[in-house]
Amino acid sequence: MTDSSNPNNAATPAALTGEALRAALAELIGISPSEIEDDANLIQLGLESLTMMRLVTKWRRAGLAVAFGELTGTPTFAAWNERITRELAKADA
Fold first, then answer.
1. What secondary structure letter does DSSP report for 74?
2. Which residues, at least 6 apart from 73, have a Cβ–Cβ distance to it below 8 Å?
């Protein structure tokens, strides 16, 4: 059994785009992926700042240049998905 509140149990950054990201965030928050609309504020849905900091650390270790302030500044699924997709494209280039 995994602890769904642990960001280390979320999908790896390479798999964190689109519906995989939505599902991973929903698991961390403890809600259904269908409850995370593209423009939904992830903080208002229950994503805690400590969990966000752990995600940033995990993603940075995987080579993604994401910043905590950037994610808290635009805490929507669509913004995060776009940002991570952009970083993954840079890594693949």
1. S
2. none
How long is the chain?
A: 93
Amino acid at 89: A
* pTM (two decimals): 0.80
| 22 close to 84: Cβ distance less than 8 angstroms | no
Which residues in the chain show pLDDT less than 70? 1-15, 93
Is 13-92 in CATH node 3.30.830.10?
A: no
**Nearest-5° Cα angle at 90, 64 to 12:** 40
Q: Where are the domains of the chain?
A: 13-92
- pLDDT score at 12: 59
Q: What pLDDT score was predicted for residue 14?
A: 59
